[in-house]
Specification:
Number of domains: 2
Strand content: 25-35%
Largest sheet: 8 strands, mixed
Structural class: alpha+beta
CATH class of the largest domain: Alpha Beta
Bound molecules: zinc ion
Distance between the termini: 26 Å
Shape: elongated
Radius of gyration: 25 Å
CATH superfamily of the largest domain: Bira Bifunctional Protein, Domain 2
Length: 407
């Protein structure tokens, strides 16, 4: 297990590191790690856009007043950093995106026809974690959350949106090779009526929303556990619990039902009969924090990432000096096709070049010698098998297909 630890593999594979001069819990993504992070973000945007999410961008800090309005301050104060004074006004680094999205919803009136409205963002968040709690990319003081808030016209619509969010989570988890019941499990996290300090007081709303989420889970027909006193302060949630390489379980993604923020922010819509009505809100993350899913994937694949996530997808190995020019042309062709490729220009033997590339877990190798130059081809080899001599166009389209489908 030790050798799969992402804290060890991250710097070894030149993906990220923590620099004490920059600070604890503040990851530095090296070029290869930044490629993986970008690919994951692209995956989120692509898949969510297909499912009707509207991606927006809001600022990393906001006036303290916004968090007082949402109730995150003082409820969430312990996880927030001290206010920043700007021209006598107090600003906070944001610990979550919800208040920003609700405020944006309020920027103009909305009709029932626009709902459900799925407002999404890859949001950089800042949360205080104690020094001892920090752990690689798993627990950080700043991270990027694949976040969204779905404004709904009714409780039924909210229940449908919870189902849709769980479908999305299961789809994306499946692309990562994660199986429900094996790699992750569902937990229905409930409030505690007696604890009015921690939870928003509204017993009827708690009863109703907890029942609603329980019904969604029962309809799905999957196993789930119920946990008291694990809810958000504004409502119950469904947590997707995942184990890391050390066997420690953590909440990876959540879908939350919220009956509190619509009141606080006065979120309304104009119904079919022309009357203003109260909206309902679902908070959800699809793949959670990008950094946390990266930590998980680094440990799962131990560096042998699927092609679409690999920082280098193909390496061209010219056997000798005479094959260099042809290799340069092949590199250009792969790059044109959108494949992340490079050439091994070292003067080493072919055997050594192959061992080196395999050691780095590069998904595809293209060997170029006399016969390949004469035939305008390359001999393709994957991480685990020899594929054979193919035209460069065929190689480019084969790799491209695998990358686009995230196979
Ligand atoms: Zn939220």
């Amino acid at each position: 297990m030790e050798e799969r630890d992402h804290k060890k593999l991250g710097p070894e594979l030149e993906l990220f590191y923590i620099d004490p001069v920059v600070g604890k819990g503040l990851p530095m993504f090296l070029p290869k790690g930044a490629v993986i992070k970008r690919e994951l973000e692209q995956f989120v945007i692509e898949e969510e856009t297909k499912r009707g999410y509207l991606h927006v961008h809001t600022p990393d800090l906001a006036r303290l007043e916004l968090y007082e309005k949402s109730g995150h301050y003082p409820h969430y104060q312990d996880s927030m950093y001290a206010p920043i004074d700007i021209d006598g006004d107090k600003f906070m680094l944001r610990p979550m995106t919800c208040p920003h999205h609700f405020q944006m919803y309020l920027s103009k009136p909305h009709s029932y026809r626009e709902l459900p409205m799925r407002i999404a963002e890859l949001a950089q968040l800042y949360r205080y974690e104690q020094s001892g709690e920090l752990m690689g990319l798993q627990r950080l003081r700043t991270f990027c959350l694949a976040d969204a808030h779905i404004i709904c016209a009714s409780e039924e619509q909210a229940a449908d949106e919870v189902t849709g969010a769980l479908d999305l989570i299961e789809y994306m988890a499946n692309v990562f090779g994660l199986k429900l019941g094996v790699d992750y499990r569902y937990r229905l996290s409930l409030g505690d009526r007696a604890n009015t300090e921690k939870y928003y007081k509204n017993d009827a709303a708690w009863e109703k929303s907890e029942g609603l989420l329980r019904e969604v889970m029962q309809k799905r027909g999957c196993q789930f556990e119920e946990a008291k006193d694990e809810a958000a302060f504004y409502g119950p949630k469904i947590d997707i619990q995942m184990k890391n390489v050390n066997g420690k379980e953590d909440t990876a993604f959540t879908v939350q039902y919220d009956f509190c923020m619509p009141d606080r922010f006065d979120l309304t819509y104009v119904a079919e009969d022309g009357q203003k009505k109260r909206a309902f809100v679902v908070h959800r993350s699809s793949i959670g924090a990008i950094e946390r899913i990266m930590a998980f994937l680094i440990e799962k694949y131990a560096g042998a990432f699927p092609t679409w996530l690999s920082p280098v997808q193909a390496r061209i190995l010219p056997i000798g000096e005479a094959h260099q020019a042809f290799a340069e042309g092949a590199l250009l062709q792969l790059k044109e096709a959108g494949i992340r490729a490079e050439i091994d220009k070292s003067g080493e033997s072919l055997g050594k070049k192959i061992r080196e590339a395999k050691g780095q877990k590069i998904p595809y190798l293209l060997v170029i010698g006399d016969s390949e130059v004469a035939n305008s081809t390359a001999t393709l080899e994957s991480r685990d098998s020899k594929i054979g001599e193919l035209s460069l166009a065929d190689i480019a389209s084969k790799l491209k297909e695998e990358i686009i489908t995230r196979g």
